[in-house]
Structures are given as structure tokens and as C-alpha cells.
Write a sequence for this structure.
């Protein structure tokens, strides 16, 4: 089973530390990381910084486009009022086929703010509960979308090589 997850942390460095933790969990066989991205938003900055990992080289370009679309729309498109709803709606049309709905996008946009960070991951064959236990010390919150096999295929076809 493939999952799209977003782990939100209450400080700008939490997601980077969690990403290292996720890589360690992968090396121990607890989870397979298809790809991940880190968003860090220090207090006082107008926008967050993003870092895409490209964990899977053969999928890197396609997933890079996915992360660019997702993170760019959520955090870098100047959105005010009604334009915010329109941008999130347009993004949702692109991501619904892979199990990421408008409500989840709005939640991510509302919760990842200045002074926080987030780890975005596409994983498979993992025990999210056991991986989540490793994040308790980071004061993180998990927002997860478990993707069906059809959604996984759509994700890989849409954003794959």
C-alpha cells in the first residue's frame, strides 16, 4: 500500500530531523520511501524554504514535478481571499486522482505556517504506526492519506518517469 503523508512540526527544524529519522526507519526496513520533501518556515520569513529529496532516482523528475506543483501552489502562489479557494480547487483537481483531496490541501495550508515545518512523503510497504512512534519527540502531527492500488498507479503514471 502506498501512502501520501504530511507530518507537521511545531518548529522550523522538526521536519528535517524527522526526515533523517524516516531515512533511518527505511534503512531498518520499517518503510520504503518513494520520495519526500521538507518544508521549513522560520518565524519572520514571508515564505518557507523547500527541499525535495528525489529518493528514487528513476522517478525523480516526475515526482519533482509533483512536489513543485503541490508545494508551489500551497506556499508560493500569492493567494488572497477568493483566489485562495480557486488555487486550492485547481490543485485539488490535479491531486484527487491520487487520493489528496481539497480538504487535506486546505488543512496543510492552514497548519503549516511561519514557525513550523512539514515533512511530505510518498511511502509504501510501511508500518506508519511504528514510524510515527519515532516522531513523538518531535512534537509532530500526522495528516495521512492512504492510497489505494488504483491511486498508487495513477500517482506513478501521472508523476512517474
Amino acid at each position: 500500500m502506498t501512502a501520501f503523508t504530511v507530518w507537521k512540526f511545531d518548529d522550523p527544524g522538526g521536519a528535517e530531523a524527522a526526515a533523517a529519522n524516516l531515512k533511518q526507519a527505511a534503512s531498518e526496513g520499517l518503510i520504503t520511501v518513494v520520495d519526500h520533501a521538507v518544508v521549513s518556515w522560520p518565524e519572520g520569513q514571508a515564505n518557507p524554504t523547500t527541499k525535495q529529496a528525489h529518493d528514487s532516482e528513476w522517478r525523480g523528475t516526475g515526482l519533482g514535478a509533483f512536489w513543485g506543483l503541490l508545494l508551489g501552489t500551497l506556499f508560493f502562489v500569492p493567494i488572497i481571499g477568493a483566489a485562495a479557494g480557486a488555487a486550492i480547487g485547481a490543485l485539488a483537481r490535479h491531486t484527487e486522482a491520487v487520493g489528496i483531496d481539497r480538504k487535506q490541501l486546505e488543512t496543510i495550508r492552514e497548519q503549516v505556517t511561519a514557525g513550523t515545518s512539514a515533512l511530505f512523503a510518498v511511502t509504501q510497504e510501511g508500518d506508519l504506526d511504528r514510524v510515527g512512534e519515532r516522531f513523538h519527540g518531535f512534537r509532530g502531527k500526522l495528516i495521512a492519506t492512504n492510497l489505494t492500488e488504483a491511486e498508487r498507479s495513477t500517482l506513478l503514471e501521472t508523476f512517474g518517469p
Observations:
- The CA atoms of residues 105 and 161 lie 25 Å apart.
- The chain has a mean pLDDT of 77.
- Helices lie at 14-27, 60-76, 82-95, 102-111, 128-133, 149-159.
